[in-house]
Amino acid sequence: MSAATGVVSGIRISHDRASLDDVEAACHADAETVLGRLADVPGVREAFALQTCNRFETYVVTDGAATGRAVLADFAPDVGGHSVVEMGHEESLRHLLRVAAGLESLVLGEDQILGQVRDAYESAREVGALGPMLDDAVTKAIHVGERARTETAINDGAVSVGSAAVNLLDERTALTEATALVVGAGEMGTIAAHALADADVETLYVANRSLDSATELTETVAHDEALAVGLDGLSSALDAADVVVTATGSEGHVLDAEDLRDAGESVVVDIAQPRDVSPAADAVDGVTLHGMAALESVTDATERRRRAAAESVEAMIDREFEHLLESYKRKRADEVISAMYESAERVKERELSEAFSKLDARGDLSEDQREVVAAMADALVSQLLAPPTESLRDAAADDDWGTINTALQLFDPDFGERGDSADEGSARPPEFVREQFGGEIPDEMADQMPDDVQAMIADDD
Length: 461
Hints:
oxidoreductase, single chain, alpha/beta, 4-stranded antiparallel sheet, 10 strands, 6-stranded parallel sheet, NADP, EC 1.2.1.70, 16 helices, Rossmann fold
């Protein structure tokens, strides 16, 4: 695949305009499933997918924008159309930078998203879904995310969704006198457990399908009364708990209304995606259930403090976005230029070999004479290719991809080596030229070809 060709297209379903039900409907069991589906679609060169608790995004590289839109059009059929945002080439690239920098997060500037982008990048690399365009784009996004957090105050006092859940609980009840339960010992559950321990809850339970994982988490939190239970012990922990944070990776509900029927006065915050707690549990007497939407009010104050820093990050993204576009242009131009010089070098070496053979037949050439002839050939190649080299770089800078793509077709790395009907000195076998234009060579293109190639095409006809 070409190092710098193709168009990026993307779709996103995220918290800014989609409900959690829509995000849940769009998400798959894992990113590999998404990438596998995309890789099976004809015309998809590269793919990248990002799934978090409040967003689903996927990107593809295709030959044209229309193809990319068609590939993604039915990718989330169970999601309302108003919730799906389609993104073109530049919008997709800029959005990736914004996501990694934390500007698109529910909690402005939160750190967790950067790790999630890294994990998604590694997943895509492992399954071979990334190519040169998306690899550069996601790498640039990670770089921007790192710079934003080290060079600005975008994450000062940053809270993840897990710690935001604990902040919400702290507003609703006195945590220092509470018995707390965290369901799930993954990344989000770990953050919530540490935040609850820091809030000095009286007792902290951690429930998890794997008791070993729950035990490991209770041993890492700074709390003397941290107890691990398996899911078989969840009922007794629920009865004892005043506050609950659920954050498992389960595909279905872990808790329903009946599980909480005997829990008494309880405040439950469900930060899992898909949801851990059935919405029906909110109707149980004494139970107050909060979902992801409730965290927005908790994070408002933090968000206001980070707005000034966000302006600096926006300016950083503007610069890095332009650098990314320029790098694509340079790579595409350099690819053509490299092919052009490689092709010319092959012709030069072939002609030199033939010339030396003829000269040697008339008498020995000294090494100095050989060097003079070779130097002259090098000079001719350099002088002849200098103007098209400059023109190609100008075309890339001006987004003149028509010129770039035409040059790609004319200066292929296999220049002069395809087919078996071309003479030794011919610039292009006609069958290969035809191949590049679907069997028919445009008149305006043929008129610009060297005389010998035009003659070959005429003979072939």
